[in-house]
Amino acid sequence: MIYLKTPEEINQMRAANTLVSMTLGEVAKWIQPGVTTHRLDTIAREFILDNGGRPACLGYNGFPGTLCIEVNETVVHGFPSNYTLREGDIIGTDCVVELNGFNGDSCYTFTVGEIDPKVMALCKTTKEALYVGIDACKEGERLGNVSNAIQTYCEKRGYSVVREMCGHGIGRHMHESPDVPNYGRRGTGPLIKNGMCLAIEPMINLGSRNIIIESDGWTCRTRDRKPSAHYEHTVAIVDGKTEILTTFDYIEEVLKDRFI
Ligand code: MF3
Ligand code: CO
């Protein structure tokens, strides 16, 4: 069942999503060659706790981090580790924060130092696809329009769309109905209604769309080990308009002219 939020609940969603956005802004300060992904995870966890939130991924079905860490070929759900970032890496940090019983979810893919222009273009297209998807997310239309907009935008540019993982409804639970796939047909799927809160999150590959789950049961990587990018915003449909509850502003203030 799709749970439509009341205006008071949307207010709580705004607060949780502001906190997750600020958390990724803190993480941004530490992205550089030589930092371990454990360190990034600690920064995020301490910031969330200091601000009265709960790191919602930590312990979720046994997940061991505050952040999902997505280096290069990792698509989603990688563990924080003693891996040290290197020049040329890309790293997605996906974070969910619970604040006063409501969840905020966002992901940003950072570039570390100088990047292969092909990988840079992948990140840029994936980020653009997120906003293309959000633009297609309109009250009174079908969710398949969002899926189709993302798929079309990325495939036209020669990238492939991961099928097995998708965006989702969000609220009191991190994952609620409906699923928000990054591929699909216009005019299909649930109607977009006032009160819906959705996490939209394109996961886009440079090579083929095929993925595998590593033996840890979580880490999802591209089968061909080519890079994958991932950006995510949580949105709410309020009074017929789509409001983006998360923001990359905190991140991009830190990155200054270094963001894509
Ligand atoms: N944004 C991720 C998702 O929607 C967060 C996953 S948290 C985890 O799948 F605990 F499941 F890893
Ligand atoms: Co999500």
Explain what the structure shows.
The structure is a single chain. This protein is of the alpha+beta class and 260 residues long. The chain has a single domain, classed as Creatine Amidinohydrolase. It has helices at residues 7-28, 37-50, 117-135, 143-156, 249-255, and strands spanning 54-55, 67-71, 74-76, 90-99, 102-111, 160-161, 167-169, 176-180, 197-200, 203-205, 211-213, 220-222, 228-230, 233-238, 241-244. A five-stranded antiparallel beta sheet has the order 8-7-9-14-15. The site of 2-amino-4-trifluoromethylsulfanyl-butyric acid has 11 residues, from strand 4. The site of 2-amino-4-trifluoromethylsulfanyl-butyric acid (MF3) has 11 residues, from strand 4.
Short description, anyone?
By secondary structure, this protein is α+β, with helices and mostly antiparallel strands.
Per the principal axes of the C-alpha atoms, what is the gross shape? globular
* CATH architecture descriptor text: Alpha-Beta Complex
Largest beta sheet: what is the strand line-up? 8-7-9-14-15
Oligomer: single chain
> Which CATH class applies here?
Alpha Beta
Radius of gyration of CA atoms, rounded to a whole number = 17 Å
Structural class: alpha+beta
Number of continuous helical runs: 5
Major β-sheet, in short? Answer: 5 strands, antiparallel
* CATH topology type: Creatine Amidinohydrolase
Q: How many beta-strand elements?
A: 15
Order of helices and strands: HHEEEEEHHEEEEEEEEEEH
CATH superfamily, called what? Creatinase/methionine aminopeptidase superfamily
Q: What percent of the residues sit in helical stretches (DSSP H or I)?
A: 25-40%
What is the distance, rounded to the nearest whole angstrom, between the alpha carbons of the first and last residues?
Answer: 37 Å
Bound molecules: 2-amino-4-trifluoromethylsulfanyl-butyric acid, cobalt (II) ion
Mean pLDDT comes to 98
User: Unreliable segments (pLDDT under 50, ≥5 consecutive)?
Assistant: none
How many distinct folded domains?
1
Strand content: 25-35%
